[in-house]
User: Fold these one by one.
Assistant:
Number 1:
Amino acid sequence: VVVGFIESVGEALNHTPLSEMRG
């Protein structure tokens, strides 16, 4: 899924923890 991809990128870059945003 796109969300999973974005989350992986976000965590990899340590920029924004999208994991918190998705819930």
Number 2:
Amino acid sequence: MSFVLPLLVLATFAGPAPETNTPPAPSNLDTLFDGFDATLVLYEQHSDQTWIHNPAKSNIGTLPCSTFKIPNTLVGLETGVLKDRDTVIKRDAEKFPEQDWWGKSWRTDQAKLALAFKHSIVWYYCTLADTMTNKVIAKHLKDWQYPVPGNLTSGFYFWIEGNYGVSPVDQVAFLRRFYNQELGLREKTTATMKDIMILEEGDGYRFSGKTGLCRMPDDTKVGWMVGYLEHRKGLYFYALRLEGKEYSEIMKHRKPLVRKLFANMELL
């Protein structure tokens, strides 16, 4: 079931006006997500309108998986552990030995930030978190009104294991605060983050985002696609979460579903 509402829990931000007075709205969300355990929160900034598919789950938190690389990267940039998109982190082969299921981009002795973010290189971000410490990360999360984990044990990667929870509503609220420079970040931090989040650019639009995939303690597989679409017709923030039994099905559909959502709105 889908709803349209102003979602008053999210603050309204100013921004450049779109070329049209009425930014395109989604339609037939129930049809788009038919057959999926999907939750979507979509917000258009200029019209201050929110659309929600599966509202019963929109405020329920699950592991954020690799979408947590967004706040994780921001902490790294703000603390100076990360300098720019080319910051190199070396892999500790004893702590993070190569695994059979690793993709090609993970099978390296070192990686740069932009590549690690794009390909969700877990060992890069676990090393980053160990360098910054969970307590420092948690302090920034609290300041940014992002859900704070309960377990801050060193070496415990709370965003991909345990009972830590971030909801689709949380994701969109945070992305809006980040995009509209409400987090008190340095300009270079914001610029670097926005740069590495870009997925594609075209005539009159820029599509940015981050995927995530992991397993909850009850063995439910969780997949995310979160980000924003800057378009001459509007500014959209989105968070799609898919839940299921198989990683492969979630991986195959999360990004195509978001693209189809915007394609149906004639934005991509």
Number 3:
Amino acid sequence: MSLCTNVPYLCIILIDCLFVCLFVCPTDIPHAVMSLCTNVPYLCISLCATMELSVVTGFITFVPKFLESQFGVSASEANLLTGVVIIPSAGGGILLGGYIMNRLKLDLKGAAQWSLVSAVVSLICLATLFTVGCHTINIGGLTIPYSDSPNFDHQAPSEFTANCNLHCDCAIHSYSPVCGSDGITYFSPCHAGCHKVTNFLWDGQTTKYNYTDCSCVAVVSVETINTKKYRIEEQKLRYGGHVITGKCHRDCGTLAPFLVFLFIVTFITCCAQVPAMMVTLRSVKKEERPFALGIQFVLFRTLAYIPAPIYYGATIDTACILWQPLCNGDKGACWEYDATRFRFLYFGLSAGLKAMSVLFVFMTWISLRRAATEYVEDAENRNTDPSNGSTFSEEGAVGYDVSYDVSLDETRTTILSEDGNISFQSPRSLCPPLQDGILAYESHV
């Protein structure tokens, strides 16, 4: 509903439609529109490409945010890793898809079949990403209680004020996380109850602050009591630990496997781009190809490029557990996410769109296969009918193919005889007239 009332969005779609109608439309627009709307392979492959582009647009937009929240990397490092993985894998996948098309000399049905295989394999690889991730960091008062707050409810709103920082009068309008010596991340040094601060160099370049005498940070001390027969070690819990600026490091080693799987998914997904484009071009009439591509462009902008980041962002926001409060009572940016929920929502939405893509490309392949079967059966009846003037006879023939050559705009029959000789016949009388929108089919009998 928000998109329907979004004036800039509607203006962009209107401009796209006007561009298509003014520059790429054929002379008879109603007839061309009707021809494309009744062309099942074209419609299915267009919807398949729309679903794939929705995944690509929405998924890649939020990969850096996912890396930040899931693995604790910095924003600059997350963007660098995204570019290093996505760009080579996408480029390599497109090149491989084009090479396979040229090497195997795939026809229309073969291109659809290759697109189907690529979509299924990429969906399976995407499913493995559900298992690659990290846990949510421990944040005092948000995901775990303060040590002096035993009655902690995870379902209740965040309670960053406890007995240990009650008199500190801490503000919650600025998120300055610190890592305590107890392994817990605190909202700020104030919420950790710290009284003293010193600065030091971290890794020789970055200056960090060390806050000490923190009343909320527990410290476990070990006291040893020696007797004549035994040595007793007693652990005592006291407060007054220290914290340093920044969140606590996640003890998680799944970043490298995630990047590897992301590379594979992107690579396989892009392998289907060239075959899908071939299916689009060869499933419509030659004079309608510019118009068909223009309609696809409008469809991509309307259903993929513009709305995908919007509903991806809205879905991911439901995993937020700590929002920035604004002065007017609204929510600002999300400070912390539930890592597990984020992962399942993020990959679940992507997997759902990919499953729809698999369904549409499967429908494309089925429609091409069914139309090819009907076309060849009709061609066989005409080839064996002496009244059509054909010189072709099944006698002495082991098998034959009936196909339509798009570049030559003619029908060709390939005959394999018992002695292994191959001959070709290409008179138009051998095959029936082609139906609108069906330009290239091949079948083996």
Number 4:
Amino acid sequence: MDTIKLTIDNKELAVQEGTTIYQAAKSAGIDIPVLCYMNLHDLGIECP
């Protein structure tokens, strides 16, 4: 997979293609408040 570069809160990150913004932020220690997060997209299930 390719590497994607992005910047969140002035922190430059490099993550694997397919990584969500939430996952990238979490891996960098950046807190993004969420009401619901479920990694079930591949199963066709969306977060209620």
